[in-house]
Each structure stands twice: as C-alpha cells, then as structure tokens.
Amino acid sequence: MEEKKIKHLEFIQLVITRMNVNSFLLRGWSVTLVAALFAFAAKDTNIDYVLITYISTPLFWLLDGYYLSQERKYRDLYNVIRQKNENEIDFDMNATVTNSNKNSWISSTFSITQIIFYGTLIAITLVVMFIIN
C-alpha cells in the first residue's frame, strides 16, 4: 500500500486544519472585540471606543490573511504530494515550494471572502459611529 504517502498527506492535512482554525478564531475574536467596543461606546456615549476598532480590525485582517496564505500553500503542497509516487515521499513539510501569486500574503488578504467579511465590519463601524454621534 501507499502508507508513507497517506501519512504524509495526513501531516499536511493537520497543518491545513490548524491554519483554518486559527483563521476562524481570529474572525470570532474580531467580531467579539468590535461588539464589546460598541457596547462600551453606547454605554458611555464615548466615540473613542469605536475608534479602537479602526486599529484592531485591520490588524485582525492582516493576520487572517497570513493564515489564509499559509493554508493555501499547504493545500498546494497537498496536491503536489498527492501526485507523487510512493518512493518519492520524503515527508518534507516545506510549503515554500508552492509559492505562487495566489498564495501570497497580499493576495490572500485581499481575497473576496476577506474583503466581504472585514469590509462589512468596517462598514458597520462607520454606521455605528454616525449613530452614536
């Protein structure tokens, strides 16, 4: 059988899963932080709390883009390993061999899903800021 190949693919899948979970947690933390800051801003009618979201949201966006780029690299590595023969398996986990433009940090940060998610957060922040004023 192809035990080495399957084990190598399992290792790569674990990395992909970890990157995906990190991205998911970042999005959850981002929404939680924005909601908490909105609550503080509404309670004290202090717009300064809302202004903090203009710092935190882009930081979460950048970090989320990084994890997405790493996930994309490992998905490409998975496909490379999937097509190798059993005797070519060396358990190399270096995903830089799969660097491409679509796997770059910038490309991942400005992917459609990231723009929709974080753009919505920024738009909601703008609306809340005008409501509080």
Count the E strands.
Answer: 0
Rg over C-alpha atoms, rounded to the nearest angstrom: 20 Å
The proportion of residues forming helix, as a percent range, comes to over 70%
Mean pLDDT across residues? 92
Major sheet size, sense and barrel closure: none
The SSE order reads HHHH
Strand content: under 5%
What distance separates the N and C termini? 67 Å
Number of helices: 4
Mass-distribution shape: elongated
General description of the model:
The protein is mainly alpha-helical and about 130 residues long. The chain contains four helices and no strands. Helix 1 packs antiparallel against helix 2, helix 1 packs parallel to helix 4 and helix 2 packs antiparallel against helix 4. The protein is elongated.
Quick synopsis:
The protein is mainly alpha-helical and 133 residues long. The protein has four helices and no strands. It is 77% helix and 0% strand.
Blueprint of the fold:
Blueprint lengths: L2 H42 L3 H35 L22 H5 L2 H21 L1
Notable traits:
133 residues; mainly alpha; single chain
